[in-house]
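Quick entry between incubations.
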Amino acid sequence: MVPVNYYLIVAAILFALGVLGVLIRRNALIIFMSIELMLNAVNLTFVALARHLHSIDGQIFVFFIMTVAAAEVAVGLAIIISVFRLKGTIHVDEINLLRG
Amino acid sequence: MLDYVWLVPLFPLLGVIFNTIFGWKLKEKVVGIIGSTTIGLSLLVSILLLLDLLKLPEHHKIFELTLFKWIAAGSFAAEIGFQIDPLSVIMMLVVTGVSFVIHIYSIGYMHGDRGFNRFFIFMNLFVFAMLLLVMANNFLLMFVGWEGVGLCSYLLIGFWYEDNNNADAGKKAFIVNRIGDFGFLLGIFLIFTTFGTIDFTDVFHKAAVNFHVGDGTMVAIALLLFIGAVGKSAQLPLYVWLPDAMAGPTPVSALIHAATMVTAGVYMIARTNVIYTLAPAALMVVAIVGALTAIYAATIGITQFDIKKVLAYSTISQIGYMILACGVGAYSAGIFHLMTHAFFKACLFLGAGSVMHAMSNNTDIRIMGGLRKYMPATFWTFLLATLAISGIPGFSGFFSKDEILWQSFSSSYGNFWLWILGAVAAGITAFYMFRLVFVTFYGKLRADEEIARHVHESPKTMTVSLWILAGLSVIGGFIGIPAIFGGGNRFEHFLEPVFEKSAAIRESAMAVHGYAVEQGHSLEWTLMGIVFAIVLLGIGLAYLMYIKKTDLPGLVSRRIKPVYQLVFNKYYVDEIYNALVVQPIKNVSDYLLWKFVDVKLIDGTVNGTGYLVRFAGRSLRTIQTGFVQNYALVFILGVVLLLLYVVFI
Amino acid sequence: MDLSLPVIHIQSIYPQMILVLFAIIVVILPLFVHNLKRELLALISVVGLVLAYFSLINLWGQNLTGFNGMIVGDNFSIAFSIIFLVGAFLAVLLSLNTVENEYLNYSDFYSMLLFALVGLLMMVSSTNLLVIFIGLEILSISLYVLAGIRKMRVDSIEASLKYFLLGAFATGFLLYGIALLYGASGSIDLVEIGKYIQANGFSGTFILAGAAMLLIGLSFKAAFVPFHMWTPDVYQGAPTPVTAFMSAGVKGAALAVLLRFVWTIAPLSKADWTIAIWIIAFLTMTVGNVVAIAQSNVKRMLAYSSIAHAGYLLVGVLAGSQLGQASIMYYLLVYTMMNLGAFGVISYLGNSNKQENLNLRDYRGLGFKHPFAGLAMAIFMFSLAGVPPTGGFVGKFYLFNSAIQAGYLWLVIFGVMNSVISAYYYLRVVVNLYMHEPEKEVAVPKASLGLSFALLIAMVAVLQMGIMSSSYFEFFRQAVIAMP
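Done. Structure below.
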């Protein structure tokens, strides 16, 4: 059997990759996908821990995270589309009207 | 039965609110009437209070009303509460009475000014704050009022802020007063740590029960509070702001810088009399500062040519008398003089305002003269008030000043030297006041054609106010005719309950020392005669120099030129302060902060800090680039630091 | 088989249910009734708020636990909920101004506002991290929409995008923190986690890192430095009523959760976290105030000022006492009043979508031309600066007093110095209102009744809380969490 630590380490790496994606990718859509990656890393952590602890709470939590993430996608895509309509681009480099 | 006291400060506050919201669109007249009526209503309620208070049984003339708790945290509690006793009722009457008259006067005086509404808002706000100050039943509320009147004073000195000089005068008053307020605040802190409460009744009760005469803590508290009084009441050495404060409109000078606010220090000492009586050392300091200020400011008054400056120095000098009275333990005499002074000094200032009105806002008495003919009402009221301030028997100032001088000689805290300082100052006062009258109202008008053509008597609203105040200056002293004239001094008797603790402390202290004061009436008569002779001498000298031989003043000033110059330049105190305090600060900031600092007179260091903060702000805002990923980066930086911290430490 | 049904106590979520119901009504009604006036929609929302308020009051003192411990209806949650209701009420009134009338889709707006409020209420009325997370997300998603509701405006939609990306990013950390805490303790309930820590000590990588990440997630919402970067941009770009609602509500909810967290998991006095929180509080106060000085856009200035106020509130958390809790609630209520009021004046003076009159220069001389708005702004600025006799002064007094009693003298000294710095930029607004001649004609439309009403309420409340503070404070003292 694979020890729980392996899952946790994979999840941590995934999370770090997500963070890295948010920091270096310039396309708002891909940044958003990187955030989803972070959330999935959390899901993996939860599931692994739930199994390890023999507790149902973690798995329930994952359901909620997935639901909420779906809702976030709906709103997020709408916002990104609005940005594209107004500015003709979704590169975050070109979106810095508000600053200072 | 006295629980309607809250109405007294409420009316001026309503005036402030109403005029702030609606005053901008209303006509001048309406604004003025509302401003004055609210004060008039306060006056009415105060009179009712007085009548009700007189009905109360002797020695129970005290009433406390707690409206609600303001702040309560741990052991500290502050209430919004009023204490009504003879002392506060007298102060309320003086404040509302004098301000009522001055408000009416202002309707005429401020006519046509762009800031008419603003003026009345500030004046009503001032009355509100002043009433809080005198009605408070604890030190914190008193301090709120204390700061409030300071704020209004500052706003009104700089009322015509377009002129830089006025704004600077306001700033000077602000800074000098901060020094005094700091002492006052420290005093309150010390009271709280010593007694665990800031409520007047509790503090004074605990002080009288738990502390002996001469206790070190009491001396410290008394001296700290006195620093506050010195600042607010313009005593040596913090008086410098008051002459400059004359930059404000004349009604302001009359109300705030003569009749009410500047006497707050005297009221405060009288209110905390128990603490002062327990600290004879502090009392001595108070008496000496008062006596020195009285004579010091009087000498400067001789040489000034600005009608308002003369009155300003005269105010400083007269407050010196009140402080002297408190210093010799004659608190009720101090309050008595505070009251009569409010009448005649307000009258004098309003008269001066009337003169300025006629002289196209000139204040230099050298171009005046002979105004007696042009403005009789102003002249007669001014003369009556001058007689009162000079201490001519029968006028109000005589009774109060005589009482102070007698006490400064005969009281157990008094001595011959205090008396002689006061007596000489009285003579000088008579001299410079009559000098003012003679130069301004007698002789020939020395102004140029343009001004001379416009000389006229002031409108009704102004002269009526003058007559009211002049009348009070004449008869105001009758309520306190001393025993020696068979008057029984009703005023002092009325105030007795306020000072009974102090009296008890003094008696027990004297019993220990086996020291009893019993001075005969014959001595009092003699001293009174001497003072009166000195006053007459002063008046005679003024008559000689300014009516009979008008070349004499020039001759005298040439003969004693060094002395004259010294006094004329107000003993160079402003210059000394500048050299000893302002310049060093300026230099230090100049060298320490190089040329970063925009050095301006006194606030060089303040500006320096301000500059650094602004610089930091401008630098820091560049981090806020607007790129969302930079924000995420800063975020991650925070995450990393925090994780490193919690995991490895 | 013995099946024990959990105790539900449905009334413990009546307030939330009422609000959801009204949110749905507000969004559906315009489909059936055409040409609905915005005032009517506002009125319906207000009715919902009032009903929710009464159902909350009804719960006061009962200490109900609903849904098998998922919902906690203690006084603590009710007090915070009431503060949020007040904030939402003022925000509804604020939205009745001229600027917002031009483009705002009111039914969406009020519905989202009510949903955001539901999120706030959920967050404060639970110790279960799952419920807290769901509340937080209901709040966040509504706010993403609200921030970008002016969808034809570049700055508004930019604010929305930034808020969305960073908000989701921060949520990731929050969730990771919860996962780690769960891994260590085996529970997602703060009380259970607290028990675990009591037994095993506040140590171990999972617990420490988990707690830190949870703190980070909350810090983002409350805008603590260095997690504050989104605040100025979003506050500036979002419609003014939304900004006003966010500034007080979101901050309050994050603080409430933080208080529960600190109180049940790690009494700070026992952990060596204090230094970290100390530094965050210091940085938050200082950065907020210092950068605010360099701003000329009033709305942006208030955004920075709200960061600084988050720092003041954190000082109360650091105090770690019941006095500190009550002080935070008190200050939060005052802050809701004065900050929503200040934003209300900003809407009041806005002319149109293109001319919002946000620059400090536009305020010159307006104090005399618009005495009511001028006076209101002056009072709010004095209160934000902490000048007596306003509520802002008393609130700061309580906060700093609680910190001093907990022994944080130096932090309080820095806090007071910060207040002095902040007085500079707050009073600059007042100076511009009253002591400068107007540079240009600033056209200000006739104010709507609702907006004026909101300003009046806020003004009176700020003054009343400054003068008669103790009754409010006593109320909040009954709402603190009991000692664990």
